[in-house]
Amino acid sequence: MIVSDWSKYVQGDSVDEWIQFLNIFGWNITLESKDKFEYVYAGDHTLIKTERKNEQKTFLFGMAVALAVLPNEILDDIKKLIAE
């Protein structure tokens, strides 16, 4: 588990919960382990390819924090745009 002052902004302690949160905003995040690499995809696009699962987790946590610290009004506007 990642422990930091930023963790108070992100709901959940697991990668699955972070992905669920990110996918609310239309990211369509999926993970894959292949050929000794860890991948994070947004739809068909590779966001990160790394040799360490911890780096994959840190990347997802960072994405979740980046959205979670936005004011609720902005988050609501983003959700409305995605729904259109």
Question: What attributes characterize this protein structure?
Answer:
alpha+beta, 3-stranded antiparallel sheet, 3 helices
Describe this structure in words.
It is a single chain. The protein has 84 residues and is of the alpha+beta class. 44% of the residues lie in helices and 21% in strands. The protein has helices at residues 15-23, 53-68, 72-83; strands at residues 29-34, 37-42, 45-50. Strands 1-2-3 form a three-stranded antiparallel β-sheet. Helix 1 crosses helix 2 (53-68). The longest helix is centred in the C-terminal third of the chain and has 16 residues, at 53-68.
The helix-and-strand class reads alpha+beta
Strand segment tally: 3
Largest sheet: 3 strands, antiparallel
On the 0-100 scale, what is the average pLDDT? 87
Percent of residues in beta strands? 15-25%
Strand order in the largest sheet: 1-2-3
| Percent helix | 40-55%
The 3D shape can be described as: globular
What's the helix count? 3
H and E string: HEEEHH
Write down the Rg: 13 Å
User: Roughly how many Å apart are the termini?
Assistant: 35 Å
- List the uncertain runs: none
Write a brief caption for the model.
By secondary structure, the protein is an alpha+beta fold. The chain is built from three helices and three strands, in the order H-E-E-E-H-H.
